[in-house]
Structure formats: structure tokens, C-alpha cells
Amino acid sequence: MLDFRPVTVADKPLFEKYSYLYGGRNCDMAFANVFCWASFYRNEICESDGFLLMRIKIDGRRKTGYFEPLGEGDIEHAVRLLADDAAAAGEPLRLQSLSQGFAERLSGMHLDKELFVFENRDFFDYIYPAESLRTLSGKKLQPKRNHINQFMREYEYRYEALTPAHGEEVFSLLHKWREGKNSDNRSLEVEENVIRTGMENFDALGLRGGALYVNGRMIAFTYGSPINEETFCIHIEKADTEFESAFPMINRLFVNSLPEKYRHINREEDLGLKGLRGSKLSYHPEELYKKFYAIERDSTEMTIWRFLENGFNADASNIASYISAFYEKENVFILNEGEIPAAAIFIHRLKYEYGSIPYICAVTVMPQFKKRGLGIGMVKRALLKMFDAGEAVVMSRINCNRLKNLASSLGFACAGEVSETGVISVAYPFIWWEGNEENETVFRVVNAKEYLQRYVGYFPDTETEIVLHDDIIDGNCGSYVISGGRVSFTPGSGDGGITPYGLFRLLPLAGKDFIFED
């Protein structure tokens, strides 16, 4: 049995004894990253048979993952130990952030359960020659030199080494940087906690950093730590975007302050963000350090992978990011035909102006089971479960040009039909339908009484009577009276009444800005 324990700052010498020799240039193998993210990922380590092993909670949630074992010896035995640890917790083996060399060795191992190994472009590290970032020489980097020259012409600036004493200024700048970004975004809060941990343990972690000032005010800061004797990793870089070219300026000044023994600079991954990817590529990396992942083929997660691969025009990175970071058992419901997975419905939750609602992200059917009504049947069953749970309204996205009749037959109304709705904005943490820009947001009243009570809570002066007929949810059928801020309901057939589609159009709680709940 493996004796995992939480990572502490005192583990730095132990961790680096292994990571400097066996961790390659992987930013995830920088101890400063391991420690500063430990409260989120709940990082744990242990030594066993000449290897350092690390266990995490993937994206800070319930699913357990393991990093590549670092050390010398029987690597297959080390992987078996991890598989046994996962099995003891009732989970499949999930391996994270693997080097290409280890991934190739993994494919040749004779394990009890076969693994599916894949790369994820969103998490490739960007490695640059330090000299290139110091000098920005050459035609390709001329635009960067132009930005820096412009900055030097326009501003009186000074640069100094970052220390723990800069903490107050760091967080003042960080809060300014966050202005205009979604304050409810969990990732921003997590990152702030990571930076706080780094600043509070700056010296113990061996961090080095820089601060850029204009007119006596900090406008940019950065810091990082060594991954090995030749590679330095930049963990954090923030700047006030009101100062044009502050990012390239702080980057160049900081790299020039590093000891010359660091011949390579790792600027970490782009997380699949297009703007960040473009920025990192514009510095022309010498290497994209590939990272691989592995999960058991005989696992629910691989079933989910096959559903998304068959149902959507999505690449492996999108599917992998969803499975590792967002998928939980309660979000996906699978219908089997015999013992074969035939259809699946994906449901997450959104927050918006009018509260929290379920969101049907996807309904997908395996090719051999299409044209049997399985997808529609799953939507209907999901609606009935939502009704019993007291859900007021559900949201989804479809191509209203092609599927409007199907949507309305299920009681959904396209948001574009409701003039009060305006432009719908959803902060999607994952995209499967890339290229399907024609998809529109649709809403469906689920539990009509709960919906009307919620509506009255926002519009208390509403006075009306409604007869509702719902072909799918019998419990909605009947008469509703809204008066004095209250909703009364008399069950009945609802014959001749409006449908849920009509109810939503009559009294819409559509909203404009939606955020995924974590």
C-alpha cells in the first residue's frame, strides 16, 4: 500500500532530487508549481522502490490522477502500484502530464488493464532559447523589438527584482488586471490563491521575479523557478494592459536578469486559449514540449470519449479537457442497448441573472443506433427527472434553422424569438461543436409552478391567469393564477391552453450572461 501524504514546502529538496534528473522540461515538474497548486489539486507524494510518486485530484475535483513516476528501476512495477492504488479507491487509473518517452514506454507495458494513451495540445509547454528572449534578434522577432522600443520612448520606467515585500503592490495590480473579467470565474480566484501562496513562500520556494514600474506605480510583475539546471520556468506574468507593450517589456527585462546557466525558458502551456496560443507562438519557440495522458480503455471515461468523438466535430484536446476537468458521473446519463452504450445526454449547470438552471450540453447517439428515437427519449426522461427535482427551466443549444420544429415539439423556444433576450453570452469552459456557429440558445419551462414563482419574484406586479398543456410533463397541466406576488395551481388537462413553448415566450426569463457552475 502506498503511503501518500500532502506536499509541504519542506519537500522541495526531496522532490527536486527526482525532478531535476527525471522530470525533463515539464513545467508540472517545477516544485514551485507543485506546491503552489497543492491546495487546489490536493497534491500528495510518496517514495516507493526508488521512485517518487504523486497523486492529485484532477482539476481539484473528485477524480484521482497520478503523475509520471520519477526515478530509476522497475517502472512497470511503479505503474502497477499506481493502478492498485486507484483500484482500491474504486477508480480507473488516470495518468497525467506524461513525457513522450514515458508514454512510449507505457504503450509497451503488460498491465492488467489496457490503457488509452493520447496527447493534449492544450497542455504542451512552450520552450524558448533563453538567448532569443534576451536579445529578440532576427527578423521574426522584429515586431517584439518594435513594441519594446515604443515602450521605452513613451514611458519613464524602472525595473527591479521582485521580493515578498512587493506583495501589496502585486495584489493591487492583480485586482486591476481582473477588472472587466468575470469576477465569478473560478479560475481567476484559484490563480489568485496560487500567487498568494507563491508570494508567501517566495524565498523557501527559490522563486525569482521582476517588477516593472512607470511613474512610481507597478504596472507588471513576473516570477518563476528552475525546472532543472538548464531550464527556467516562468509561472506568472501579469501586466496593466493600459500600458501598451508592458508584457514584452517585462518578459525581456526578466529573462535578462536570469543567470546565464539557464539556456532554456519554459513559458508553460496555453490551455487551448486562442489569444494565449497566438501570443506564445509569436515568440517562436524552439520546442513544443508534448504532454501525454492515459486512461483505462475499459472505463466510463472512454465510453464518454467515444460518444463525443462520434457525435461532434471536436478534436482530442477538447474531449480530453472535458473528461479530465468537467466530467462527473452526475453530468452524463448513458442508455445501453443490451450491454452496448447506445446514447448519452450531457447535463451541467449554469448561473445567470435569474438563478441556477440545468443546461443540456449534448445529446448523442452511436451511429448504429440512430433513427430509433433514443435521443428524443433521453431528453424526455431528463425533463421528467428535472420536473420531479423542482427545476424551473432548462437551457440548451441547437440549430434552430434545421431543428426548430423538433425543439418546439419538445417545448423548447429559441431565444431569438424572445425580443427581451438580446444577445446570449455563455462562458463555455469546453467547446465540442466547433464550427457549428449556427447553434442558438433554447429554453424550456420544466416545472411550471416553480418557473412562474421565480418569474413573480423578479416581476412582482405580474397579474395574469394561464392554462397550460404539456405533452411531456403531465404534472404541469392545469390552470395557474398569478396575483399578489403568489402563484396558485389547479391541476387539470390543460386542454386548449398554451404550451411550455408559449409560456416561455409569454413570460420569458431568458437572461443574457451565463456562467458554468463548478
From TrEMBL:
Superkingdom, natural source: Bacteria
GO MF annotation, one: acyltransferase activity, transferring groups other than amino-acyl groups
Domain N-acetyltransferase: 294-435
Pfam families noted in UniProt: LPG_synthase_C
TM ranges: none
Protein name, as recorded: DUF2156 domain-containing protein
Biological source species: Candidatus Caccoplasma merdipullorum
